Amino acid sequence: MDSILSLRQVSKTYASGHKALDHVDLDIRRGEIFALLGPNGAGKTTLINIICGIVRPSTGTILVDGHDAIREARPARSKIGLVPQELAVDMFETVNATTRFSRGLFGKAPDRAYTDQLLKDLSLWDKRDAKIMELSGGMKRRVLIAKALSHEPDILFLDEPTAGVDVSLRRDMWKLVLGLRDRGTTIILTTHYIEEAEEMADRVGVINRGKLLLVEEKADLMKKLGKRELDLSLVEPMRAIPPELAEWHLSLEDEGHRLRYTFDAQAERTGIPSLLRKLAELDIGFKDLDTSKSSLEDIFVDIVAHREEGAAA
Asked: Which GO terms describe its molecular function (predicted)?
């Protein structure tokens, strides 16, 4: 699959000396949903702002569908729609006027049928003549998306798009996003709701302290780094784990009523049969057992923690 967005050695160091991005290389495939994950201050918004031409990089090159984002800023930017974290709209303007004006900013001819349908898709049609200042927070967020999509961009950036919105709006927004992807739009999102990335993304990138730590297919990442947990509900609560069980690195949960074993499901030997035999030898009874797999959030936390430990060493 060809790339619609390519970054090479993109860095950003501010006058204060703070390095927000550190030699980022990244290719985004045409038509994919790419989730960029990272803690606050990791560099996610800086990266988006550089691609969108809001911030100038210190080094590096950016190609947006073949256009150099610095030397050919206007055609490159016309390919992109941006839904920022912060509201950036004229509060005294109407929803309809704002959407149509945004389309004109990118040199697009008026298309009333398109903008009307866009407002209907975003459940803004009934509010089309309302001033933005009269809308709820969730409705204002929908207006930002309408503005970003008004010029029919090939790439849509969603920077924490569902932060602070209710569950029903979040569901509507992701339904719209999936529909856009089905029509060929490339979606790049940052989110604190990792379950959204886990459900929707094709690939995942993890960024921390300005460095892109990894980029993986979501399924491959979870298969490679995901762990499973075996929980044993004990017949009798346990105050401490016997030394005879040390090799399994168990943990006690639920005030000693549950014994947890974390293992690699991809390993040739999981250690479960030998653990169960040892429990029988020690006359430790259990009444139930259950297994669960790591979520993308677990994997993300492990990656960031591991890299921070490595940097401190």
From this structure: ATP binding
Token pair listed for 4 = 């619609």
Q: What domains, with CATH codes, occur in the chain? A: 3-223 (3.40.50.300), 227-293 (3.30.70)
pLDDT by residue (tens digit) across 163-188? 666 677 777 778 888 888 888 899 99
Q: Of residues 134 and 161, which shows the higher confidence score?
A: 134
Sole residue written with tokens 């509060």:
91
| Neighbour tally for 124: CB within 10 Å | 20
Six-digit token pair at 164?
């602070």
pTM, two decimal places: 0.74
Summarised one tens digit per residue, pLDDT across range 203-220 is: 989 888 899 988 988 887
% of the chain at pLDDT higher than 90: 42
The token duo for 103 is 């389309």
CB under 8 Å to 182, separation ≥6 — which residues? Answer: none
The full 3-state SS of 216-263, as one line of letters, equals EEHHHHHHHHCCEEEEEEECCCCCCCCHHHHHHCCEEEHHHCEEEEEE
Q: How far is CA 204 from the centre of its chain?
A: 7
Six token digits for residue 181:
């992807």
Mean residue pLDDT across the chain? 86
Residues 78, 94 contacting (CB under 8 angstroms): no
Q: How far apart are CA 179 and CA 125, in angstroms?
A: 18
Exposed, middle or buried: residue 253 (CB in 10 Å: 0-12, 13-18, 19+)? middle
In terms of Cα–Cα distance, which of 191, 184, 148 is closest to 4? 184
d(CA 91, CA 134): 8
Average pLDDT of the segment spanning 295-309: 66
* SS3 at position 296: helix
Whole-number Å distance between alpha carbons of 213 and 301: 12
Contact 270, 263 (CB under 8 A): yes
